[in-house]
Records
---
Amino acid sequence: MSHLWFRCENELRVYGFEAASMPSVVAPDSFLLLLLQITGVILLAVGVWGKLTLGTYISLIAENSTNAPYVLIGTGTTIIVFGLFGCFATCRGSPWMLKLYAMFLSLVFLAELVAGISGFVFRHEIKDTFLRTYTEAIQNYNKNDERSHAVDNVQESLSCCGIQSYTNWSTSPYFFKHGIPTSCCMNSSDCNTQDLRNMTVAATKVNQKGCYDLVTSFMETNMGIIAGVAFGIAFSQLIGMLLACCLSRFITANQYEMV
């Protein structure tokens, strides 16, 4: 942070501004530039992690959300690039660059605000979509496609089976040929196809809890946290936008005084 301040101080002195009059604006703006860079790195990291780790889960949450990791990666990269632009604009003391940077921050602020509000308001629709897509995944389960792998991952990681319970598998075409998937088993070494094709016997071999309640409970618990983080990041960018505008006005006023 101190390195950035000294760099800005030297740049501004070249343009004729006294550094003593600038700390009240530049120092907070420099801190928020660093904060913006950190949020960009976080979004980028979450996007990469989501693509590598959660790719199979995303297809079960919503039909059109498979590009979500790419959106996070793109947003994080854009924030990092514009954060560097903000550093350059601050150090150069360029009013039009600072105004452009403030405009970018305002767009990001509005986008994050809308995303946070939409995620909270439409959380029930997300649950309904998950129920529909998860039901379809069970009905079309074949153990080979992406959604089938996602179903297996959910059932294994959450120790659950089916939608509301393991009995939901009794209506799946897969059940009539192979029985309940082995991903439902409490102990995979104690499960065989013959047992899994018999609902009475399978009741003692598979997890009893359904996956829908566990997944939606997780979503309900964490939706407020996610919305809070989105609003927090948006608020920091709003302050950065205001400081960038103040710095731009300050530099413009000094230029007129110098003339």
---
Amino acid sequence: MSDRFFRKQHYHKVHLELRDYAVVLEDAILHGLLEAVERDAWIIGQSNPFVLPIVDYETSKNYKIKDIISKIKEQGYDIITREFQYIERGLLIRMITPGMLIQD
């Protein structure tokens, strides 16, 4: 196609963060593997008969996280994050699942 064709096109600017796409084939493979691990961990976490431990944000040293959580709580939401760990084929899988609840 000619350069003139591309100059006449109107493209919408879309904001994508680096985590939203893979730059090279190796990144695409890695992202695919991480997605598979995350789905596997999520399914195991959902079928787990035990109550998973809740992450305590009050003990966090990350002030940005604390600030974001306090802003969310000011809007009437509560954040509950559960932590799940398991070992699969010698690899420790750690999954942290956040969720927001509307307070009554």
---
Amino acid sequence: MRSGGSQLGAPARGWTRGNTDFMGRYASLKSDYKVTRRHGGRFQIMIHDMWGTDSWPSADATPMPGDNGSYVEFDRFLDTFFQLCISDGIVDDVWWDLWNEPDNGQFSNRGLARYLAYWNHAHHKIVKDFPGGKTTGPSFGRLPNFAGSMINWFTEWASSINANNSIPDMISLHFLYADGDLNISISQMTQILKDAGIPPGAAWNIAQLERHNAPGLRANWRGGLELHDYLANLLGKAGHSPNYLKMKGQRVVTAMTDDTLGDSFAVINPSDRRVRILAGCRPFTGTWSVRVNKLSALSLPKSGILPIQTWRFNSTPGIYDRAAEPDNLGYSDYTCCGDKVTITIEQTDPAVAYAFEFSY
């Protein structure tokens, strides 16, 4: 969970709007932390939200750390923040996101050099003054293979953190592209880190993240109070997510379709001797398939008939509509040949996903 009170209005607009507004956002963050830890989750503190960057009419009007060459006010902010967190037990599994998407606002019109100076200052203060302080970033709003003329934000950031010993505990990026390929993005980011002399780390869809053992967070594009409710439009008030809860067992190696339009996530569960596959696509319609290889590894015949159960997860008309229960489409017989079976999907609605299950 990432939290910092973003988009809350008065009296919760952040530090730069006064102590009352800072405490308003802190109350929101404190509540989020308790809920997150109750469920065993990691917690990321979004510094820029607690600072209050979204509560000003323009980037130029926003007070920023390092303005006029001074970090006095920013350090006072962090010192106060640290004391509150320690007093309220907001310490375990806390990660400090140093600044969210600084490239998109080009660090509130202060530029790359100011951002790098800020990063180094904030990182060292957190590591020095907060118990077990862990940092994450840079949380850029783009990936290196989509950076274009702003690729220097990646290369100069990597060089700077190595030179200033301010390498974060976890490297995070935002994967927000419908046509993105995490294989390419991670490869390019890894090369940038290597060129700067930094050991590569994890980067910030489900299947692509699982494939690279990369922790990920669901993007939340709601505004105002809705940003703090509905669990990023994933769940309703009385909802739950049985689909992913069923994906227990040993994760299976998967790969995207050759055109990268379709993907899957699969597990083998020895407890009930079931194979479960979640399959979904990018925004497109057409025919695609999921091929399961090495059936004999599960003591299944290399050829013959394999009954496979299909579930369909339907789309909803709007974000506030309750999602229907998955449709159980029953079992169909699939022909196995050459130690593999192919499941063909007729994708008429890109928002519809499928699950396939079979026993072994």
